[in-house]
Give the backbone structure.
Amino acid sequence: MRRETYPPIISKMPRLLHGGDYNPEQWPKEIRIADNDLMKQANWNAVSMGIFSWVSLELEEGKFTFEWLDEMMDMQAQNGRVVGLATPSAAAPAWLSKRYPETIRTGSDGVRRKHGNRVNYCWTSPIYRQKTSEMATRLAERYGKHPALAYWHVSNEFGGECHCDLCQEAFREWLKARYGSLDALNAAYWTAFWSHTFTDWSQLESPGEPHGETAIIGLTVDWRRFTSDRIIDFYLNETNALRAAAPGVPATTNLMGTYTGLDPFKIAPHVDFIAWDSYPWFGLTPWDVDSWITTSFIHDLNRGLKGGKPFLLMECSPSSSNWYPVMGLKRPNAHMLEGLQAIAHGADGVQYFQWRQGRGSSEQYHGAVVAHNNRTDARVFQEVAALGKTLGQLTPVAGAPFKAEVALIHDWESAWAIEATVAPRLDKKNYTKTVIEHYEHFWEQGIAVEVIDSECELSGYKMVIAPMLYMIKPGVAERLAQFVKDGGTLVTTYWSGWVDQNTLAFQGGYPEPLRSALGIRVEEIDALYPDQHNQVVVEKSGLLDRGSKYAASELCERVQAETAEVLAVYGEDFYAGDPALTRNIYGKGQAIYVASRNEDAFNRDLFAGLTEQLGIKPCVEGSWTKGVTVQCREGATADFLFVLNCTDKEATITLNEQGLQNAVDGTPAASSFQLPAFGSRVLIRSLTPQQPVALPEVAAPAAS
Ligand code: GLA
Ligand code: ZN
């Protein structure tokens, strides 16, 4: 039996990619030649070039200098590496800023910035768009058919806002297209409040501190939507030029995890594969498990952006990042763990920023494969090379799907609305943090989760979890209700279904559009002071044990059950005895409502109860130390089980499974074993256990 897998993300390199940012324009020829050899030792098969190379490609307006890049492209091809070639628009040359000041970004204070830094350009400026699309065309004409070219890396880490007059005008056009009439806009913005009614489109301006409008919540959210759309439009300006001059070459851009400035679900259809940059800040407690869980969550989110397709980890640090407040070193084994974690969740490659540590400027101390020590026997170089070797041995993992029966919603527009709203507490709104808290149990148990937004397809999941889904956009409630009717389990929480797409509050009791599915009505919400707590007391066994108590804090809603059964009640305060957890049987499914923000143990126990009830299983049964996870990719003839010890202590793992093989060499593997601190192991579970999986020869990487 052979299962379907995805085609390789890079057809020229049908294996896991290993490489990263390479900036040869910063180095003399002898170093570039040495680098070529060192890249082989580091087991690199891919490089990203040209990301910030504008001035090296166009020293003066119209004076192009591609020769160095020609040489570098040829060198990669001759040495079997593929190239993600960037358009250089992320950092403008000084000559451009001086000659065309309109290309520089304007802040929310209305002040145009000075030249410098990066991603400091206007999203709208016709000159910037013309110059960047011309450059894209030249790159595509010159390298579109180059044997090393694998894909276009369009610009770099899109982010930030521009409030210049050109962007303001574009915003007004965007608003006209969205609302059609000022009456519709005024209604959506509830502008009769404080005499904010607009009587001419020209009166509309971008909102924001320190001098601008901050009172119209709908306007604030629209500005974020607009900026996100503008970024996509800017991306398409370059991408269309590339596609026109070099049809068929895939294009992507590097996203930034849960960064809120760009809705990744909106740009996803426009990129050929998803790529993202992961720089987990391992917090003030060095290397805590929570940071690993967050990184896993974001990998799942990136996989979810294109409905489960493999993605590329475009950047991570080979060591630490110099912009952390404290530059803690990556602990031994942690590099392998970080790389395999990405692959486990669906990445088909691990890349870095950057190849060689620069001698100057703001990232001179950022981790790099070749550090200032310039040695291949250095710890970081060795660990990078070891990961590269392992990725070569894991070639059959490339394209293997990752499948989940649980979907967790993280919705950008809802996040923007939560950020903008002035209630029910101004601190600790914690949208993303809360979503991740709903992920933890599954991660610990090795149960696969897909992270989606509220407009994604729901069929195929057994359970959909939608924490704090504050904004319900048109059609979403109907789809969630239908999902339940058809037999699905929906879990949602306090602070869900309060407003429509315009941030106007629903009438009649939240979460209004989901009321019949949930069988409840929210009357009001109580925000608790830091040392104030309530309790959730379980009244009915089934999902949780009767009599169990869990601490609730920060946010507690007062809920009336309509058709729902009450599973738990509040234990304290004037609403003691009121519903805190309800379940409504609706059609063939059930909808669960969690009325308060509860301690972690509540989520763990609730999801343990639900997964047991629904028969949702981990990818492999067994037991392991807390802080270890097991994730699975389903290859053509075998499952690949990634066992990841995300703790700084030795861990014990026992899998209820016989006949496993070690993925790196195909040898038989024990099902009970120890992993050192930050240790990791990949195991193969053959689909035909009597027939161990034959690993393909790992040939030297080759570009065709
Ligand atoms: C980002 C950028 C890179 C580099 C790294 C450093 O991801 O894309 O150019 O600045 O951060 O961590
Ligand atoms: Zn602008």
